[in-house]
Amino acid sequence: MTERIIPIADLRYQARMPAVPREPVAPVGLLTDARGRRLHDLRISVTDRCNFRCTYCMPKSVFDKNYAFLPQSSLLSFEEITRLTRLFVAHGVEKIRLTGGEPLLRKHLETLIAQLAAIRTAAGPPLDLTLTTNASLLRRKAPGLRAAGLNRVTVSLDALDDDVFKRMNDVDFSVSEVLAGIEAADRAGFRQIKVNMVVKRGVNDDQILPMARHFRNTGHIVRFIEFMDVGASNGWRMDDVVPSRQVVGLLNEAFGVEPADPNYVGEVAERWRYRDGTGEIGVISSVTQPFCSDCSRARLSTEGRLYTCLFASSGHDFRSLLRGDFSDEQIGAAIAALWTVRADRYSEIRASRTSPARKIEMSYIGG
Ligand code: SAM
User: Residue of the nearest CA to atom 12 in ligand 1?
Assistant: First the structure.
């Protein structure tokens, strides 16, 4: 009989204690890495738990009742997240995305949002504060999130057809509930809601046109995402990827689209708009057209490990610094020391080398 070994959640992935420089230098509000990329975005995972079991992200076969999710004591508290965020902002971060797992499962998330909304960027204005959600709780929570100071939401929805969507989320959750969440967010005052659709060949590629048709003229922006080789449990194969240029070709044939300028350097999605003025769509092509060269994102896991790339195999344990006897100045300097030497560009070189032995799961590091 084979015995199943349950990993101690905290030890599941490698992490090093960040080096704290002996003589910390005060932040100047602009930090660039070894390839000249600035630190602009911080993605914060607030929980590693999710109530969906999307087959491409948290398949039931791995994330079952025996799976060791992080214990409550491991999670960064709201105060710890806020303190660390302030230190990142001092180095030039202007955009925060709360993610997970499913971020709306984290109790009292509105309290964290209010704390983050009070932070001012180095230049003075508030942060661009946004959240990615599967929308299962959005109908109920949208007004409170907005009132707490959240600026924008991104909703994940992989199909308009209920059977296809249920097959993908694997928990029998229906499309109508997600659409109701989007409507509630709209009513609560969120504008230009982004709708993320991960496209998997033979699974939901027949949903590209229905999704585009549904959200045209609504002011919301569908973004078609290439299925990525994150983590080690989703059975990724290149054959399953529908290249973005095919998606754009399909949309152009059906509706007529033209390229739009990026909103800012390092924007993840390539923007397109309908020629007849009925709205905008985006494509995220991290497999076929990697955008490492201007990647300005750092990621903080639920337990306070910092990753400088979505495909990293190890993180940096900032929770130890937060819970140790370290000053803001020292922790800020540790962030700077890490970012300055950052040279990651996994997506650009994935084709020319084998994958790292242990890639971090998306549900842990945050999407
Ligand atoms: N639970 C939230 C949600 O559903 O949006 C936030 C976390 S989820 C990991 C964030 C995003 O990552 C979702 O839009 C999801 O579809 C996307 N995602 C997960 N695994 C992916 C993969 N292998 N390739 C591309 N996108 C993926």
Answer: 367
